[in-house]
Write a structure and sequence with these properties.
Blueprint: H1 25-62, E1 81-84, H2 88-100, E2 108-111, H3 119-122, E3 127-129, H4 132-138, E4 141-144, H5 151-158, E5 167-170, H6 177-184, E6 189-190, E7 194-196, H7 210-213, H8 217-222, E8 232-234, H9 237-252, H10 257-266, H11 272-275, H12 294-298, H13 311-314, H14 320-327, H15 329-342
Parallel strand pairs: 1-2, 1-4, 2-3, 4-5, 5-6
Antiparallel strand pairs: 7-8
Helix pairs in contact: 1-2, 1-9, 9-10, 14-15
């Protein structure tokens, strides 16, 4: 198809009647949503991948000569990603995760009704099949990339197959979080909510392929969760879900609350805490008070584990983390640095302390 690229008479726009050309912006909007969706999914996978490595290192360092890891599977801490749906979104997401996280092919599996259509992934030794229940029983992170009409039957298939710690990340925008929770009988769910900026004609990266767009520093910066510059806004509550999901991972591995907090802080590059306040003291690291209310903290012992967080509630209600995120520019900077650093880009100094946009309603 590359030989047709410069032939205007064969382009998609050529066949559209003049009175309908005003709707072409929807094509760019759709592509912009795909870029942002893949960028945020990649960031989340990178975060979990790095957390898995830290957990593995901590577990190894705790083991004495008399202790053994034989009781746990060798790859128990590794990130294993499943994708349900092999359509346009599912395939784009798989390409991005394989190339940009990067997730090894043996740790990515795709379940779709037409696995024979995923020849490009099978050649890379990615397992492609049609068994949703088997997929979620294997993975610890599952992306739902199916159609809304398919979701009820898929949820019926999988709701009894995944473990409590498995994170379900839904791209099915037409199905709200409370409905997802009921369909899946599960609480460890993340669902990004996007809102397109009205009157925003130019969606950043709309003319680029997804992987190429996500390797462009300008476009990547525009995908930052607290930055509306790309024409598509991500509800800031998604960041709530991301960090509480990370804490749930620590809890599932029986990390004590101070160990969990240390692990989450270690996800941030050291430069975060030095650059946030150029003319003042370094910003403090994340504390328990960023995630829990003071009354609850007072009743915890040092060897307690953190409570299990219901991510569906986290994304629908105010939390200590969202309150701190909205009122403390320093914390916003921490998160922005973490996001940009995960893609290997640096945030210009003049763009620090940008308050996040108002969260769009559900």
């Amino acid at each position: 198809m590359d030989i047709l690229e410069d032939l205007e008479s064969l382009q998609f726009e050529r066949g559209i009647e003049e009175e309908n050309r005003s709707w072409l912006y929807l094509q760019h909007r759709c592509h912009g949503l795909m870029i942002k969706g893949c960028a945020h999914a990649t960031f989340f996978c990178k975060l979990l991948h790095n957390l898995s490595k830290l957990l593995q290192e901590k577990k190894t360092s705790r083991c004495s000569s008399t202790e053994s890891l034989a009781n746990a599977p060798e790859d128990d801490d590794e990130l294993k990603v499943g994708i349900i749906g092999g359509g346009h979104l599912g395939k784009q997401l798989a390409r991005v995760l394989l190339q940009l996280v990067p997730i090894p092919a043996e740790r990515l599996r795709i379940s779709t009704r037409r696995p024979e259509a995923l020849d490009e992934f099978q050649k890379l030794e990615v397992q492609c099949f049609y068994d949703n229940s088997h997929l979620v029983g294997w993975a610890n992170l599952v992306f739902l990339c199916c159609l809304p009409s398919q979701l009820p039957s898929i949820c019926t298939e999988i709701q009894n197959s995944f473990r409590k710690a498995c994170i379900v990340y839904s791209f099915v925008s037409a199905v709200p979080i409370p409905r997802l929770k009921n369909l899946l009988n599960h609480t460890n769910i993340l669902r990004p909510q996007y809102q397109c900026v009205e009157g925003f004609a130019h969606i950043v990266g709309a003319n680029k392929e997804i992987i190429a767009a996500l390797q462009d520093p300008v476009i990547l910066q525009a995908t930052c969760p607290s930055d509306p510059a790309g024409g598509v806004i991500l509800n800031i509550k998604w960041l709530d879900g991301v960090f509480y999901a990370a804490l749930n991972v620590c809890t599932a591995k029986a990390a004590h609350l101070w160990q969990a907090l240390q692990l989450v802080n270690e996800l941030f590059p050291a430069s975060c805490f030095k650059k946030c306040r150029k003319d003042g003291p370094p910003c403090p690291k994340l504390q328990l008070g960023h995630f829990l209310n003071e009354t609850y903290i007072e009743n915890l012992s040092p060897k307690s584990c953190l409570p299990w967080f219901d991510l569906t509630i986290v994304q629908l209600r105010d939390t200590p983390f969202s309150d701190n995120l909205l009122t403390h520019p320093a914390l916003q900077d921490h998160v922005t640095h973490l996001y940009c650093n995960s893609f290997g880009i640096s945030l210009p100094e003049e763009q620090h302390h940008v308050a996040p946009p108002d969260s769009p309603s559900e």
